[in-house]
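> run fold Metal dependent phosphohydrolase
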Amino acid sequence: MSASTPPAPPRWRVRFQLYLTAVLALLALVAGSAVSWLNYRSASSQLIDSHVTQFDYAVSAAESRTEHLLAPVDATLQMLGGSALVTAGSLAARLEALPLLIRALRQDQRLSALYLGYPDGEFFLLRPLDSPDSRRLFMAPPDSRYLVQGIDQQDGQRWMQFVYLDEAGRVLYRQRLLSPPFDPRTRGWYQSAVRAAGQRILTEPYRFYTTGEAGASVAREIAPGVVAGADLSLQDLSRWLVRQPRISRSEIVLYDATSLRLLASSLPPQPDRHGLALPELGNQGSAAMAALARGPHPLGAYPVEVDGEPWRVVVRALPQTSYGPPLRLAVLVPEDELLAAARAEGARALLLTGILVLVVVPLAWWIAGRVSASLVELAGRARAIHALDFSPRPPLHSAIREIDTLAQSMDGMQATIGHFLAIGLALMREREPHALYDRLLAETLAAAEGAAVGLYFLDADRRQLLPAGGLIGEQRLILPALSLRSSLHDARARALETGRSQIEPLQPDSPVFDGLPPPVMALGRQGPSIRLCVPLVGHEGRGTGVLVLLFVHGQSLSHERQAFIEALAGLAAVAIDNQQLLSAQTALLDSLIRLLAGAIDAKSPHTGGHCQRVPVLLRWLAEAACEARQGPFASFRLTPGQWDALLIAGWLHDCGKVTTPEYVVDKATKLETLYDRIHEIRTRFEVLKRDADIDYWRGVAAGGDAAALGRTRDERHAALDADFAFVAACNTGERPLSDADLARLRRIGARTWQRTLDDRLGISHEEQSRLPAAGPLPATEPLLADKPGHRVPRPDGDGTAANRRRGFSMEAPDWLYDRGELHNLSVRVGTLTAEERYKINEHIIQTIEMLRQLPFPPHLKQVPDIAGSHHEHVDGSGYPRGLMQDDMSVEARMLAIADVFEALTAADRPYKTGQPVSEALARMRAMCERGHLDRDLFVLFVESGVWRRYAERYLAPAQLDAVDVAAVLAPPGDRTPATLR
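> ok
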């Protein structure tokens, strides 16, 4: 992951109150747990130390106990050194000393035997038989209590005798064996005692053969080569170990460190009676002893693991006060029992910790709630700012300094952003440049809390800064321009050049105040001041102007205030730039609209002013409606956007005429297309007249009566002249044609003439496609004809069905054009055929379709409907959509009034002359009565005098005649004479 990669957001979020409560509870839990753990560790250490100390005491006691066991035995051995047994040379002599040995055995019942070994290999031993098992083992008589085992030499032979004695020492039975294999000199106790040279020795412990008990031999050399010994049972030591205070499952063992043989323990021994060796430490059925036997056997205290359970072991060495094996005393204790008190104390501490947590949680919840309430409120205010809700709220205070500072900063940020956006919205709403500049100056001066403010813009040549306005308090200022060439070091020029704000300290005598308005000069001369020049940067990154503020003595310019002013200047620059761009686009759009309207008018010189004059009438009529304070239009008002839509519709209401053929728009005669075809008809009449002359001369040449032939010729000429004059009169369309006129046209058209040339020569491919195949020449043709070539078919997708799909109700003729001569001349009224009339009317469909294709902004979306409805009638009989009054907007009905009045009074139509205003208003009144025009708007049009204002500016003086306004406005059928000029 790169260093620039932002951290991923957390997967989950919690409330601050819950978070803080959890943290405090966790801290309490961790602190309590730590204290409990430390107490547990301390208690455990103390318990272990106490256990070790106690064991050390036990070791000392065991040492004393061992010495207590050995000391009497040693004393007995030393006593034997002063007896006759040392010098006795035979078994009989030694038997005499039995009372001494019996008394020693009776005094110390721990002794299993007393014996002496002599340098010549003789041996003397006294053993008590104090149990049936021992008597049975040695096959002694039932009353036997002691057994004497002696080895001596008689007659060069070694003999072993067994003497069984009763309780009183009397002999009960004797048994003698020859050559016994036993020689005391080969025994370890004898050899160790001889080496010890009079010191007490202790042999390696072993199990007594007769009793199965663990024991050891204590020996001492009492005379040179004479060693006295005693077998000492360790059963007493085991019983002493059992009596020692200890933990229930703990074990105390005494063992040989060399052979790991068990001497004594606090557990019952499990001897192997088939051998004399002591049991091994690991074969006593104790897992703890087995664990001790398996591992190393260092001295000290250390842990061991017994069947997965932790135990503690303390091993101490018994001091060796005599020759003998190294003995170890060990205590094994399970940790759970050793540290039970520590664990109980830890559990109590944890319990107290839990109680503390239970107390801390609600307290922490309450404290966190008090703390988080301010944060929740701040979060709500932040969300409000995010939602652009800057409604005032009461100040928020907190005892926590950081939260209080954050609250104050949040309130300041809310106020700053709210004020900034309010100013920005106010600037963006201003549509007029000067109103925008005035608003900017006022808002900047109020926000900056300065003394004066000025606004400058670069001229088109970027050579000087032109003032757009200034303000000191509520007084407007007229500021001088600044030439950039001659004032390169001026702070305004530097700000514009560097694109950074310039702060300039000023003294009262600074030349900056020279040439400024007197109020500013007087303000600056009062004391030190500061001038802040902030550049205005447009969307292209180029400086477009400078905003200048003056701060006088007592007014501060903080960093925050400067940043706010710079941000406001940036916003103002965008607003001004947008306003200028909008003004430029509006001007461009207006120019394009006027260009298109001019092109439409220029297409037909005879209607050159229609698209220019209708918007004037429309605007005046709309102004009259907006100024009305009573009547149907008392509440009628137009927004700036609606004004734009209305005037654009007025300018573009006939834009569809660009698709109307020019000859149709300007058609002055019935036979006119690109030229007036009456000349072709006249030529045919000339041909017929020439035929009459030819017939005359042919008759004369044939010898006919010249006078009669001349009269016939003249009659034919006169008839042809009269017929042509009639055709020509029909062609002008100046009067309606009757049925008789139409019948005469058909009779005249039935005349024939001879065509001797192919009529397919020299024509276009399209026209050829409309003509039938060429016939034989000469061809006889009617004088006035409706030929197939005169009919132009309508393109696919054009016609009544297509109109219906687009929402238009106009019925389209079958042919796009029908230029038939009789068809055109037979038009009863006017000069236009049905096809041409449709083509004229179709311009409104084209107007709507063309305007619908334009991406008008929302406030201009009504332009197509307004512009395309000026031929609709309020009774639904109009075109192209057959709308009723309620289906049309007031603006559309206004456009119909303006269009009709301009058309009636226009003097530039080739097919009519301009009507006087009285006739025009009379005709419009009639149109209102027929349901063509909105009567309320017509009344407003007349009463407001819009018609008079228009006539005085655009019509010939002769057209502004007397108008009987009362008669014009009278209800239908009423003509109250009253003339108002």
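Residues 607-661+832-969 form a domain with the Hypothetical protein af1432 fold (CATH 1.10.3210.10).
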